[in-house]
Amino acid sequence: MLALTALLALEGYAHGGVRASRVARPASAPRADIAAKIRVAVVGGGPSGSCAAEILAQEPNVETYLIERKMDNAKPCGGAIPLCMVDEFQLPPEIIDRKVRKMKMISPSNREVDIGQTLEPNEYIGMCRREIMDGYLRERAQKKGAITINGLVTKVEVPEDATPTGGRYKLHYAEYAGEGAAGKPGFIEVDVVIGADGANSRVAKAIDAGEYNYAIAFQERIKISDEKMAFYEDLAEMYVGDDVSPDFYGWVFPKYDHVGVGTGTVTNRPAIKEYQDAMRTRAGDKIAGGKIIKVEAHPIPEHPRPRRVVGRALLVGDAAGYVTKCSGEGIYFAAKSGRMAGEALVRLMQGGSRIPSESEIIAEYIRPYDKAYGPTYLVLDLLQKVFYNSNGAREAFVEMCESEYVQRVTFNSYLYKKVQGNNPIEDVKLLFNTIGSLVRGSAVAAPDKTFSNPVESLKRL
Fold it and tell me: Could you tell me which of 137, 131, 114, 110 has the C-alpha nearest to residue 53?
């Protein structure tokens, strides 16, 4: 979440308001030619799926189904959310475990830099447990009228004609409503499908949305003593170094009554457990004696899929590839994409009187989303390539965190999803300071260890 260079300033200038495009809406599939209600299936009950279902469920002529395999799912995730998300999505305070107001950046040589002094008293990064937040969002969608199905979608049959006047999508699922471990087979036919089913999306595969590269995130939830937990009361730590990840960072994030300790990598996924062992070593006495209460691992997309709308099926959240590089942030973008997709469909359906086409969904959902957040993905991709590619660059990254200007610009960008009060003079200074930091970092850093995994590194989801 703390991507710190002059390039970051570009993100603020690139952000623009999201305005629904005015597209021509032919009178295809008028109310008389379709079922009594338009049926929409949202596959996946995380933030993206729940936020999409919440919007659609409020339409009286739209029947919204929200399908989720594990209603108590605890997705492996750092769990950080920006301050703007709390108000924008009306999140209650009880789902936020910790309010982080201080961060400690730790370099490959264990140089520590404390940041957070630019935050106002009411500003913080929220730390959540996904099982709590996701459950709240699902329940809210259900209260608005979404019909929830506790089931796993096993197959998606795509109609030969996916235009508005074509046939329906048929979703097969195993329903887990009872006590038994085996699911009861069922199916549902719908007019529109929203794939919110994560990195291994079955919806994406069914519509041939294309592959993407991915990271593996690995996290251990560790219960530590109350005395040690007090150290992390409002503090999060980020570690960089090729020992904890060759292309990402490691973290210690405070949760309700424990800490999440984890790391991730794209380029050397087979060694993820070695990097996790190194994370525990780097954290050292601060988590010593702790008990591992849960081990989690999950793929994280590295870029948007080539196709996010095919026919009347669309992707949101991780299924679409909406996770930023460098920071690995995905919760806000998942919720935002789900809401924007739901709102786009509501506009296009015109009170449930028509079924939208592929081109209309692209114009109303994909283009506004890309306009608003595409530059963010681009900038953070560049930052990751610059600062996570060697120990020298990582040392420079941490050194730059000492700059008050860098901290202010970074936190404003993360907390509010826009950069406020950019100073061109300071940006120029930052550019030269970046060069100096890179030179100094390269001079003091230990060389990176070499590794090779030519076969596994080519795998895609």
Answer: 137
Instruction: For tokens 């495009």, name the residue.
Output: 21
Residues in CB range of 418: below 8 A, 6 or more apart? 11, 12, 15, 412
Which residue has 């959310």 as its token pair? 81
Q: Are strands 147-157 and 169-175 parallel, antiparallel or unpaired?
A: antiparallel
Other beta carbons within 10 Å of 211: 13
Q: Can you give the length of the chain in residues?
A: 461
pLDDT (tens digit per residue) in 232-260? 999 999 999 999 999 999 999 999 999 99
Helices (H), 211-271: 226-231
pLDDT digits (tens, 9 = 90+) for 165-177: 999 999 999 998 7
Query: Which domains are seen in the chain, by residue range?
Result: 29-75+131-212+303-378 (3.50.50.60), 96-126+214-301 (3.30.9.10)
Tell me the two tokens of residue 169: 């999508």
The tokens for 75 are 């997705």
Residue 176 structure tokens = 């887990």
Annotate 80-92 with DSSP letters as a single string: EE-HHHHHHTT--
Q: Which of 27-31, 46-50, 448-452 has the lowest mean pLDDT?
A: 27-31
pTM of the model: 0.90
Q: Annotate 10-75 with DSSP letters as a single string.
A: HHHHH--------------S-GGGS-SSEEEEEE--SHHHHHHHHHHHT-TTEEEEEEES-TT---
The three-class DSSP label of residue 281 is: helix
